[in-house]
């Protein structure tokens, strides 16, 4: 009788642990996928016009799939700013054959646009203002994570000032 109660208690604890573990897994994966999503660039003239209408420069993140540095920049820096609506940002995937309209409205792929920009390192952030001109120094790479936020803030401020 006592061993039967012990087995019931162990079974109950195991079910609770599984339920709690499953809930944590769902919560973690939901927050990861929400934070990691930046809009993919489709038509740069429209993205730029929408950003400028909000009084913001257009920030373009050039990224690579499975790039750990890109993930940090996306999750820790750009996604929070995007949620706060304090930045207009789109992502262009280096090496991707996804279609895109360039700044002049011409069709090409993400990879071709990256090549035209001369971007060789991911992540790279580019900041565009009126007439599709770059209005701040590019932020290339993410090797200094302690200072990345400050570098990003500086570039964004420079880009915003160019619109004033």
Please give a handful of descriptors for the protein shown.
164 residues, alpha+beta, two-stranded antiparallel ribbon, 2 domains, 4-stranded mixed beta sheet, 15% strand, globular, Glutaredoxin
Quick overview:
The protein is of the alpha+beta class and 164 residues long. It has helices at residues 2-36, 44-53, 68-83, 110-117, 145-163; strands at residues 58-63, 88-93, 99-101, 107-109, 124-128, 139-140. It has two domains: 1-36; 38-163, Glutaredoxin (3-Layer(aba) Sandwich).
Describe this structure in words.
- It is a single chain.
- This protein is of the alpha+beta class.
- The protein has 2 domains: 1-36; 38-163, Glutaredoxin (3-Layer(aba) Sandwich).
- 54% of the residues lie in helices and 15% in strands.
- It has 5 helices and 6 strands.
- The protein has helices at residues 2-36, 44-53, 68-83, 110-117, 145-163, and strands spanning 58-63, 88-93, 99-101, 107-109, 124-128, 139-140.
- Strands 2-1-5-6 form a 4-stranded mixed sheet.
- Helix 3 links the parallel strand 1 and strand 2.
- The radius of gyration is 22 Å and the shape is globular.
- The protein starts with a helix and ends with a helix.
- Mean pLDDT is 84; it is low at 12-35.
Please trace the helix and strand order, writing H or E for each element.
HHEHEEEHEEH
Q: Tell me the overall shape.
A: globular
Strand order of the largest sheet: 2-1-5-6
Number of domains: 2
Main beta-sheet strand count, sense and barrel state:
4 strands, mixed
Specify the CATH architecture of the largest domain.
3-Layer(aba) Sandwich
Low-confidence stretches are: 12-35
Percent of sequence in beta strands: 15-25%
Q: Helical segment tally? A: 5
Mean pLDDT: 84
CA(first)-CA(last) distance: 80 Å
Q: What class would the helix/strand composition place it in?
A: alpha+beta
The CATH topology annotation of the largest domain reads as Glutaredoxin
Rg measurement, Å: 22 Å
Tell how many strands the DSSP assignment holds.
Answer: 6
Helix content: 40-55%
CATH superfamily of the largest domain: Glutaredoxin
């Amino acid at each position: 009788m006592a061993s039967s109660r012990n087995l019931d208690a162990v079974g109950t604890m195991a079910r609770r642990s599984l339920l709690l573990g499953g809930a944590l897994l769902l919560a973690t994966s939901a927050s990861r996928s929400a934070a990691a999503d930046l809009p993919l660039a489709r038509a740069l003239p429209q993205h730029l016009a929408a950003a400028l209408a909000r009084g913001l420069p257009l920030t373009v993140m050039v990224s690579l799939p499975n790039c750990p540095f890109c993930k940090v920049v996306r999750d820790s820096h750009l996604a929070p700013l995007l949620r706060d609506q304090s930045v207009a940002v789109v992502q262009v995937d280096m090496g991707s054959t996804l279609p895109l309209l360039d700044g002049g409205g011409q069709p090409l792929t993400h990879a071709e646009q990256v090549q035209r920009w001369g971007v060789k390192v991911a992540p790279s952030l580019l900041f565009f203002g009126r007439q599709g001109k770059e209005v701040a120094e590019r932020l290339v790479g993410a090797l200094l994570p302690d200072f990345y936020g400050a570098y990003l803030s500086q570039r964004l401020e420079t880009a915003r000032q160019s619109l004033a």
